[in-house]
Amino acid sequence: MPLSVMPTSVPHGSSAAVSATGLRKSYGDKTVLDGIDLHIPAGSVFALLGPNGAGKTTAVKILSTLISADDGQARVAGYDLAADPQGVRAAIGVTGQFSAVDGLITGEENMLLMADLHHLSKREGRRVTAELLERFDLTEAAKKPASTYSGGMKRRLDIAMTLVGDPRVIFLDEPTTGLDPRSRHNMWQIIRELVTGGVTVFLTTQYLEEADELADRIAVLHDGVIAAEGTADALKRIVPGGHVRLRFDDPAAYRSAAEALREVTRDDESLALHIPSDGSQRELRSLLDWLDAAGVEADELTVHTPDLDDVFFALTADRPGQTNQPNRPNRPDQPEEAAR
Amino acid sequence: MSSLSLALRDSSTMLRRNLLHVRRYPSLTLNLLLSPIVLLLLFVYIFGDTMSAGMGGGGGDRSEYLAYLFPGILMLTIGGTTIGSAVSISMDMNEGIIARFRTMAIHCGSVLVGHVVGSVIQCAMSVGLVGAVAVAIGFRSEDATAVEWVLAFALVVLMSLALTWIAVGMGLSSPNAEAAGNNAMPLMILPLLSSAFVPVNTMPGWFRPVAEYQPFTPAIETLRGLLLGTGIGHNGWLAVAWCLGLSALGYVWSGSLFARDPK
Question: Which intervals hold domain ABC transmembrane type-2 (chain B) (predicted)?
């Protein structure tokens, strides 16, 4: 598959769409990025995963030339970020976290504005506008002010605007945050289609499912450093074993079960106990026997194989000693209580 | 594409965008037009008799004061319109689309230039509207030649340019639209403290420097000279110097504010 449609601008000896070493950024005495290295092959989807405030947006802002890094080097689409920001800008498309559409003018006018700024001819601009509006199901709303669009429509318009200049590298900063499930799945479909067209997608998300669905490679950003990087499968292998989750309706039953069972992790908020297990039939049978013997009867029993959530919480837990005992609290930034 | 033609092309695209905003949402501009028109009517119809009685040794009528007032009202119109520019650029900066512009390979100054040129066009149109109101209530310029009219128009444009660049700096340095509106208030207050309503030599002595050493007074005196045939003296050069100085200051200030990393 051709990695680039513009052979003259392919840098020698590198098929990386984005490469960065030692990116640092701090605001005042708060370090947001503390030395980030990235290598993203052209034509792939890369997901930068992390909790709120991990520095995902800062990384995107730096790589898309919006702000400058304090330290480190980066090349995007073959152009050096510091030396040739205009070269980078000509090759990228950015859809930020907050919609970057002009709400005062119509969707169509937004598109034509992009066409003008990409110096397309009038005819070409109209053709691209009509095509993209059609592709993103916005033809009907084209003549309405963008401020009247729903969240999903705004995001679609946003991405359509990003695509006007045929960017080779696309940055999507939390493209599905705030979207309903249907719009989210539509957005995933859009992103998959982009990649089949050969572009490189740099995605940030706080949804593990999203990274798992879309990304070839995932990096987990935590406290300004990359805690782990690899394919979804490779990351899942970091966390050994899954667990069985027992949920109780009655707090009293929950408490007595928690006291009766020893090797469990407690999730007091949802009245659930997590018992390490590989999910095999043999282990489940012995677990059930054990529960019967202890007189524990849960209202719901579910078996979890390790997924990216486990990896995520293991890597971003505030207590490093707990990494082999994945816990799944509702709020990852709160230290969970573990009963031993 | 050469960098000049790139700059021109992108700036005119941005200008079209801003004019589209004005056309779609004219209420901000029209609201700002209200105060000069109200002041014009107030001073001519309510205070007019008293004001003209104090002019030229007394005995003047209302139309004489209208003629005196007209240049000041035009400057007030420009001041008011540029407050709108400060507000609109501040609003714009808080929109996500500016971040998009910053990540596109466009001429870096085009966003500001689009705003400035748009604002100057708005100023010229507002001045035209307020001027039409003045003519409708009886303003006549009897002895102004065509050249003088052209020079008067040129001064209006120059003054609009200068005040717009300052307003853009005020808008860029404000965290939000409300703050921008407040910070830009001097653009409307300064003409009130100039020779717009009464001659400087009728003001209390301690106040005269405030009225004299500010851009509006020489600009107003120059307009008066051009349209009504009063003496211009050094006011013409002074007005042009103020305009060029403020434009340069506002340009450098706004440019450095815009070049900063966004939040």
Answer: 27-261
Its ipTM equals 0.87
Neighbour-count burial of B12, counting CB atoms closer than 10 A to its CB (0-12 exposed, 13-18 middle, 19+ buried) = middle
pTM assigned to the model: 0.81
Cross-chain residue pair A100–B97, CB shorter than 8 Å: yes
Separation of alpha carbons A198 and A137, rounded Å: 22
- Structural domains in chain A, CATH included, are 13-236 (3.40.50.300), 240-322 (3.30.70)
Q: Helices B110-136 & B3-24, crossing angle to 10 degrees? A: 50
pLDDT tens per residue, chain B (263 residues)? 678 898 999 999 999 999 999 998 888 888 888 889 999 999 988 888 888 777 765 556 778 889 899 999 999 999 999 999 999 999 999 888 898 999 999 998 999 999 999 999 999 999 999 999 999 998 888 778 899 999 999 999 999 999 999 999 999 999 999 999 999 999 999 999 999 998 888 899 999 999 999 999 999 999 999 998 888 889 999 999 999 999 999 999 999 999 988 86
How many inter-chain contacts (A to B, CB under 8 Å) are there?
63
Residues of B in contact with A104 (CB under 8 A): 20-21, 24-25
